[in-house]
Amino acid sequence: MSACADDTTNTTAGDENSDITGDGIEDTETTNGNEEVGTDDATSSTDADTTDADTTADTSTDADTTADTTDADTSTDADTTDADTTADTGTEESTEETTDEGTFCDPGETICFDPDNTQTCVEDGSMFGDPVPCEPDTTCIGGECVSECDLIEANPSSVGCSFFATKLDNFYNNSNNPAQNDSLIVGNISSTDLVVAQLYYVPVGGGAEQPEGPPVNIPAEGTYTWSLGQVEIDSVTTIRQGGVYRVETSRPVVAYLHSPIGSTATNDASMLLPEHALTGNYVVTSYPNTLNTAYPSYFTAIGIVDGTTVDFTVTDATQGGGGVAALSAGGSTSVALDRYSTLNVVVQQTTGGDVSGTVISADQPIWLVGATECANVPAWPANTYCDHMEEAPFPLEYWGQEYVGAHAPTRGNEAYHWRIYGGEDGITVNTTPTQPGFPITLDKGEFYSFSTQDHFVISGDGPFLPVQYLESENPNANTGDPGMYQMVPTEQFLSSYAFVTGEGYNVHYAQITRPAGGADVFIDGNLVGGYTTVGAFEVADVNVSEGAHFATSDAPFGVVQVGYTGVTSYAYPGGLKLEIINPQ
Questions:
Q1: What mean pLDDT comes out for the span 278-294?
Q2: Could you say which residues form the signal peptide (predicted)?
Q3: Mean pLDDT of all residues in the chain?
Q4: pLDDT (0 to 100) of residue 481
Q5: DSSP 237-272
Q6: Which ranges of 108-251 does DSSP label H, i.e. alpha helix?
Q7: Contact, 387 vs 481, CB < 8 A?
Q8: Which uninterrupted H or E stretch holds 113?
Q9: Strands 456-470 and 526-527, how do they pair?
């Protein structure tokens, strides 16, 4: 998403807003217009057999979410995904047959008495002992008390319990203006249970987390917003220890980084992936700086594990500094990061410089965002206004081979600008209907740019990632401004999502993508209609009110959240499953 700065006056323009998207928790069994939209429950179940004692354990997880947005540093009700977990387990009856040793159960064996209690076989094997309560926020499954956070790690999506963030470099910095602070928004995906959330901060130069204020209680279907006051790394290449935030929650949530919060120039936002889903393999998505040399293209990485080695090969010349070597186009280097270290790499200060396509390979997971301080789309200064753009690109493991290239909801007569990034060497990519220049062949990190006014389906014989860039207001768009957002592969669609709009925008859309003639999709209990056919899929742009919403279906589908106002736009995916499609 983004807001913008005038490329001649360098003053703020327009209002800015905040937005948070929510994701449904995937089933545990398996990995323009004012449309009416609705809510279903997404349920999942897991059966576990305990063979030693002829017992059975049935568990089920109810994933029913909605989320609600709030002002900074407040919590409210919201519609987000529900993560209520129940476990039904059988216990041994005294009439059951004994084991071969003549005992009733195996000494030390533990079973589930019910969803909230375990039982352990006594020393002589004659019986199970008294029920022992599980810890709060845990459920007994297969004889163990398991937290909801542990359950989602076994079946990952963009929902999680630990998320990293840092203040990103923007057109305006926050050194003397707290209004330019970034914000971290968390949405509780449960419809019944509160979440206890603690924000931690690692001071610059430090190596240990400290609480940033007291824990907060986020009500069921509620949200909470923290302002991130750490001063940004401003237009330089360096490694900085500390200056990092992390939020930890007692139950699964969704999280978003807004740079900054609200509808002000210049801003953008990213959907964050949880710590357990991060990897070390990325291709940077960014855009050329076009205003002048002071607002460069860059990427920012955070170390998650001490002693991490990060190798990267750049596509354009980059600055050196802070222990990082200067590189020419095509050059490579390695750096070492510890947990809470921040690596910032900036393109050489030349207009048109772009770190897009930089290939990163780390031997431990890292957090990554690709960004531009301020850019015009298309990349020439007459296309006012310029805007900060950012995206937390999906790790290569999650890239797919099929996407629906649905252009953003129409503002005027604008074109829609795309880049297709290759995830491995020698892949062939084509579109239906055919778009300019296709079919194309891409190597890893290589990207192809084109513009169109069409929707299309895009497929390949290997992993790739389409990224859409929203056009500046001036040429033909009439409202909104630059922003960038990645598409979700059809292989990673979910069947339920929670999402929250930005604040202060004139119009908000939930863009729904499903297989043609597929299962009904609902938003807030209302049936989505008005689809446009795109190959074997169909797309609907649903006008939604400001605030929190919940989308669900009986089958997987995709969601993108988009909003526009004068010289400001935002957009990001509504969430995704994180199945490993491309092992690295």
A1: 88
A2: none
A3: 81
A4: 60
A5: -EEEE--EEEEEEEEEEEEEEEESSSEESS-EEEEP
A6: 148-154
A7: yes
A8: strand 110-114
A9: unpaired
Find residue 201's DSSP bridge partners: 210, 245
Question: Distance (Å, rounded) from C-alpha 164 to C-alpha 188?
Answer: 17
- The type of residue at 508 is H
SS3 581: coil
Q: What are phi and psi of 476, to 5 degrees?
A: -145, 5
Distance, in Å, from the CA atom of 574 to the CA atom of 33, rounded to the nearest integer, reads 18
Reported in sequence order, the residue ranges of 314-415 that DSSP labels E, i.e. its strands, are: 332-337, 341-346, 359-362, 366-375, 387-391, 400-405
Token pair 């991130």: residue: 228
Q: DSSP states of 459-501 as a string? A: EEEEEEEEEEEEPPIIIIISSB--EEEEPPPGGG-EEEEEEE-
Q: Which residue has the tokens 């491995």?
A: 424
CA distance 278 to 36: 36
Distances (CA, A) of 383 to 136, 472, 475, 530: 55, 6, 6, 32
Per residue in 47-85, pLDDT (tens digit) is 333 333 333 333 333 333 333 333 334 443 433 334 333
Residue with the two structure tokens 């004139």: 506
Residue 34 per-residue DSSP state: -
What is the longest distance spanned by two Cα atoms in the chain? 88
Q: Would you give the DSSP letter of residue 377? A: S
Whose CA is closest to 497, among 522, 517, 526? Answer: 522
Enter the tokens of residue 360.
């990163």
pLDDT tens per residue, range 462-474: 999 999 998 876 6
The pTM of this model reads: 0.80
CA angle 20, 215, 571 (to 5 degrees): 10
The answer to whether 508 touches 562, Cβ cutoff 8 Å, is: yes
- Structural contact between residues 447 and 421, judged by C-beta atoms closer than 8 angstroms: yes
Q: How far apart are CA 108 and CA 106, in angstroms?
A: 6
Residues pairing with 117 in the sheet: 114, 133
Our CA dihedral for 107, 112, 113, 119, rounded to 10 degrees, sits at 30
Coarse DSSP helix, strand, coil percentages of the chain, rounded to the nearest 5 percent: 5, 50, 45
CB 232 within 8 A of CB 222: no
Structural contact between residues 326 and 375, judged by C-beta atoms closer than 8 angstroms: no
The SS3 call for residue 207 is coil
Distance CA 143, CA 138 (A): 12
